[in-house]
Amino acid sequence: MTADLRTIKTPAEQALHDAYAEARANLPGKGALAKLREDAFRHFDATGLPHRRIEEWKYTDLRALMRDAKPLAGAPDEAAKARAKNAGSMVAGLDCRRLVFVDGVFAPELSDLSSEQGLTVGSMADALAKGDPLVTAYVGKTIETDDAIVALNTALMGDGIVIRISAGATLRRPILIDFASSIQPSSIFLRSLIVIEKGGKALIVENHDANASQINAALELVVGEGAEVDYVKIARGQTIHVGTLMASVGAQAKFNTFNFTLGGATVRNQNLVRFDGQGTVSGIRGATLLRAKEHADNTLLIDHAAGACESREQFRSVLDGESSGVFQGKIIVRPHAQKTDAKMSSNALLISDDAEADNKPELEIFADDVQCGHGATAGALDENQKFYLMARGIPEKEADALLIQAFVGEVIDMIAHEGVRDALLNAAAEWLAARD
Amino acid sequence: MLLEVKNLHVEIDGKAILNGLDLTIEQGQVAAIMGPNGSGKSTLAYVLAGKPNYEVTQGEVLFDGANILDMEPDERAAKGLFLAFQYPVEIPGVATMTFLRTALNAQRKARGEAEFSTPDFMRRVRETSAHLGIDQEMLRRAVNVGFSGGEKKRNEIMQMAMLEPRLAVLDETDSGLDIDALKIVADGVNRLRSPKRSTVVITHYQRLLNYIVPDVVHVMSKGRVVKSGGKELALELEAKGYAQFQDEVAA
User: Fold this and answer.
1) Model confidence, pTM
2) What residues of B are in the A interface, CB distance below 8 Å?
3) Per-domain residue ranges for chain A?
4) What is the least distance, in Å, from the CA of A382 to any CA of chain B?
5) Interface confidence (ipTM) of the complex
6) Number of domains composing chain B
7) CATH of residue B90
């Protein structure tokens, strides 16, 4: 008997089922890409939205949280584009190449498409429609996962960015992928692919501004041998945001990611990273600031599939009001991945009595010559530190703010690019200043 | 009279530590408070600075005529009270320079004075740090993080010099210092001596008092001041020990 026991769908699942049935014929991509969608949809349709009985989703019960599924976003109108043009993102002052999406659709007229040696930029919708060989080579293949949310993304992927940085190229400026806000709440399925070939160097910032939509954003990132890649993802004031990074990292690469989450009703960042070659040095980091009833979840699956790689996983969250912050980090060290050096830490600072932190670090080690460790803490501000500051004349509120800023600042400071680092530090300071 | 402590009773977790302590400090005076371990010296320092969880069950503390026991620690600091901590606290992520500037300007703001401009502040920092042998690199580091014992104590004196308090309470500032560091710290304290400023030096040993010569010495035992005298009292204690006073109270 293999009958599906889950015959009753939630309204959101039913709406997604119907949306796919209706959109299917018009979704970009034929042949193998169409089959990829079809298979992914069948997987999603059978398993449904992830819920608390799925181990990886225990603390973010998306089935319960998603009461409905918004209609798929239509093509953005001129008003939406005008708003996007003037949208002030957190990194607005950054000297960068800005690539803009409005309601999940690439807006070339708002984007900087000036040519640069070694850089190719395009839209995922176009690439899927044309059967771009880069897309057929990588999409859906970077990291193997049975995650239902990734499957849903693959089934309904609309647009996203496709970037290729050729071997040895160093980008002159950071790339900012700006996902501009919609007024009309809708469902948006973004799928992006970034391939950095051997020795390429780039800083990529992905920014999601506040909006009322339900966003499922997946990024496949292929980091070539010896490449140096920094990837920073900012999510501010999202309603429902599920983001998945799927990264494969080549030998000797330097690879850093940073998830900055500033508010949001329900945010989930999934980082699935696999080290494929030896000698990689990597930092997987993030900072989260939440208040009211906000919820954010950072879930990592770091796969040391090759030996002699160093990874540092470091996440900090500041939780105010009745917010809840989740960290789940799993590091896998494969049997042949000797000389792995991995250290994971997650620290939550609870600044109200009603905030909640859930920390779940896990190590699965199959090799015998490794250095791995993890530590997790959740606690209030240190009373001795606070008294020391106050004894020097700093009023309580200011003392709290200094300590909170220092707490998140320590991890934000690990971002190498000064402009991005300062933008995030300022955003954290503004968030604190708005605290009553 | 700058400070007047009257019949002060203090408990921590229900345990009585100060038992009717009386103490007065005149303006411009340098007073030493000596006493054996557990006599309540550090408790007195913390209570004056306003540390939470120290319950005052009786008595009052008048600073410049105002009862400070109901004030927050930052309000007391802005009035000119300074505690040099026996164990300075490490604060990761807060640069020493930022901390100094925030503290100084917060106090000035509370007193209705103009905040320091960046060049003025930097000049004061440079002057003050030079006297105490503190290099600029140390000031860029997080507060007390990775500082040696001597650096921590010098950092306390640096803060005192920047904040220019009216009453400085030095809680065992000599503990853990070698003789060279002790001289630097004492020199920093002496530099601030003035008829407008008072200092309370809490110490277990007489050694520091060779370098910071007190006007008056108070001896504490079992939560009270049991004897007061001139600077020669410190020498007498060094020679005879504290046993006589402990017996005195017990009797």
Assistant:
1) 0.93
2) 49-52, 72-74, 76-78, 82-83, 85, 88-94, 98-99, 102-104, 106-107, 110, 142, 159, 163
3) 11-277, 381-436
4) 9
5) 0.96
6) 1
7) 3.40.50.300
